[in-house]
Design a protein that fits this description.
There is one protein chain. The chain has 134 residues and is of the alpha+beta class. The protein has one domain: Sufe protein. Chain: A. 51% of the residues lie in helices and 13% in strands. It is built from 6 helices and 3 strands. It has helices at residues 4-14, 19-32, 74-87, 92-95, 100-106, 115-133; strands at residues 54-61, 64-71, 90-91. The chain has a 3-stranded antiparallel beta sheet.
Length: 134
């Protein structure tokens, strides 16, 4: 189950044949994302298991899940944005129903990310799932 916002990314990726174009698209998504307030870049929001620094600040309001995030690496910041499009505005309970790795596979990202980046994506997904299930 993917959000309409994520489905738009899937549709856009269908028009991008070249991986470099997709890579630039993800980076541009990260650049367009509002930066996370420095006050929220603390150990409690830092995601362990990522090669670069990544912070995720989740909020559950009236049963709806949202998160903001940031990274010090452009591509990872873009991946945070992709995950925001996948998860934001879902009911908290629905977060656990999302097969994020399968959804990311639809974008072809798994084939072009380094092992460290792939591990970082998994770490971000686990953090999101952990917060939603708490």
């Amino acid at each position: 189950m993917a959000s309409p916002a994520f489905e738009e990314i899937v549709e856009d990726f269908e028009f991008l044949d070249d991986w470099e174009d997709r890579y630039r698209y993800v980076i541009d998504m990260g650049k367009a994302m509002e930066p996370l307030d420095d006050a929220l870049k603390v150990n409690a929001t830092k995601v362990d298991g990522c090669a670069s620094q990544v912070w995720i600040h989740p909020v559950i309001d009236a049963g709806v899940f949202r998160f903001d995030g940031d990274s010090d690496a452009l591509i990872v910041r873009g991946l945070v944005s992709v995950l925001r499009h996948l998860y934001n505005d879902l009911p908290r309970e629905a977060v656990m129903d999302v097969d994020a790795l399968a959804e990311m596979t639809r974008l072809g990202l798994n084939d072009h990310l380094s092992a460290q980046r792939s591990n970082g994506v998994r770490a971000m997904i686990e953090r999101i799932r952990s917060v939603a299930s708490a």
